[in-house]
Fold these 2 entries.
Entry 1:
Amino acid sequence: MMAISSYIVAIVTAWVVAQGLKYIVGSLKSHSFKKSFRQLYLSGNMPSAHSATVIALLVLIGWKQGVGSAIFGLALLFSAIVMYDAVMVRRSSGEQGKAITEMILATKSKVDLPRVAKGHTPIEVLAGALVGAIVGFIVILATS
């Protein structure tokens, strides 16, 4: 029987934990557990599941392969790109999409409304990274 890779366990666990926390935070903000259910599959909000998954993987690689390894360097670069993209690119395009939607509605244009994907604030990315680091260390303890 083949064992599941601890790297995959870290990634999946970090995503599930971050998405679960996103649901809880959304529920507390909206005062409704029913309304915040959509947080489980939408982009954006607290914490960043993307950041959690890449940091959980980074922590595990650093522990198992060493911080001097080539794969750790690659994982570090990958993590930095994902988190930069969440804050700078996706957040910006989400704000632009929201502005375009408002203009279309204000002018009563017949243009179809765009799908607006929300990015992350720096604090949401930082919170996701913290979740990922914690999950990474828990996976290390559980699989060592």
Entry 2:
Amino acid sequence: MFTNRRDVQIQWGDCDPANIVYYPRYFAMFDDSTSALFAAAGCSKQDLVKVYGLVGIPMVDTRAKFHIPSTYGDWISIESRIEKIGRSSFEVTHKVYKGEKLAIEGFETRVLVGRDPADPDKLKSAPFPQDIIDKFMRG
């Protein structure tokens, strides 16, 4: 499957008083990385809304394994990849590298969501469009 890599410099506001990245900041970086993954594959979040009529791709499960810390000024690389696509859900992995060392492994399960046709005030899972699947399968 398609993989996207982006480089991120750790900012002062990412860190706790010990100058180590405060762990929730990584989840924000993972969220940005998932958006970047879709955009790099040729399907931005705006496309999901305008072209496919979806509301978004909310996270329903997440976790991470932390191996080595990062501090203010460090550069990290985040490799994001969709590992599995279901009817409406998909699993994303994020591997964060500090230099050549694996620093963090992040895992997300997300769902494509649209408006419920029976009640537009409610949300409902939506099937994954085949052309989006094809974009991620191009390796």
